[in-house]
Amino acid sequence: MILVNFKFALILTFLLLLGLTFNLRASTADSNEVVYIRADGSIDPPSTNISSTDNITYMFTDNIYNSGGIIVQKSGIVVNGNGSVLSSKHEYGRGNYGFGLINVNNVTIKNTDIRDFGYGINIDNSGDNVILGNNITGSLFDGVWISSSSWNNSLYGNRVEGNSYGISIFSPCNLVCGNWISDNWIGIRVVAPNINLTKNLLNSNNYQLSVDQESSDWMDYIDFIDSSNLIDGKPVYYLMNEKDLLITLAAYPDIGYLGLVNCTNITIENLTLRSNGQGLLFANTNNSRVIHNNIENNYDNIALSSSFGNTFSENNLTDDRFFSASFFSSSNN
């Protein structure tokens, strides 16, 4: 009987130790800790499921579940998620950033499935970074937030879905190319000049594209947004320096977004413009006519900045969220 009890005690002790080992292993991938890639190249805590042999290329070795996300403090590195998940665990509270790039340059973040943070990726006071081929979903605020003093960053081939804001750009001279952006409250929000948007696909966002400088300086609206950007399959027309142009349903049968910057003597007639931050945007666009259009379900149906002498007649403006028409330093319209 004593021998049986002794064997039972040994088995029980082994099982308890085994369970403790599993718990310790699980804690490296499922905790409430913020992970840091320090300026000296070290990973803190070192038990995180990320490895590097040269302190330049960092590779996920498994999924990471933590509420604080990853703060990158080292410039000139590549972080490859290798298709793994980086997720905020709600029982710990939502983490601030999936990736926080603050005061760093030349960092690449790629191939990571980023879920359920406050911000999927935050770029602040950082430049020349590349965000490539990530899935970014479920952010309480922005999937990608490019905030102040962050220049020459590039976003390529990311899938940005189910966030409050998909991509928000508050700093000049950034590139957004070839991204899939869907099912966000606002798809892309441009709040800075000299932004280059090309080949992006926006689908099923409440408000697809918003160029909302709300500025009296029309030069703040000089952005490079070409017709390769599609909104539910329809091209974006962000026209600059045009004159004597007739924009009608016959000439432009499909319009995803319409903005005019530094244009004159434009006629816009018989269009339907819907589901954007601005149904129709004029910036330093003068002596033009807007006639017989349906402009509906936009955040602002018509937005004017530094625009004068325009005529609006017999348009149907409905279901705007904020303003049927907003005017910044614009008169005689």
Morphology: elongated
Main sheet characteristics: 14 strands, mixed
User: Structural class, from secondary structure content?
Assistant: mainly beta
Rg over CA atoms, rounded to whole Å, is 25 Å
Number of domains: 2
How far from one another are the termini?
A: 100 Å
* Biggest sheet: strand arrangement: 1-6-9-12-15-18-21-24-27-28-30-33-36-39
The proportion of residues forming helix, as a percent range, comes to under 10%
DSSP strand (E) fraction?
A: 35-45%
Mean pLDDT: 88
- How many alpha or pi helices? 1
Structure description:
The protein has 2 domains: 31-160, no CATH class; 228-333. Helices cover 8% and strands 44% of the residues. The protein contains 1 helix and 39 strands. The strands form 5 sheets. It has a 14-stranded mixed sheet with strand order 1-6-9-12-15-18-21-24-27-28-30-33-36-39. A hairpin with a 5-residue loop joins strand 2 (35-37) and strand 3 (43-44). The radius of gyration is 25 Å and the shape is elongated.
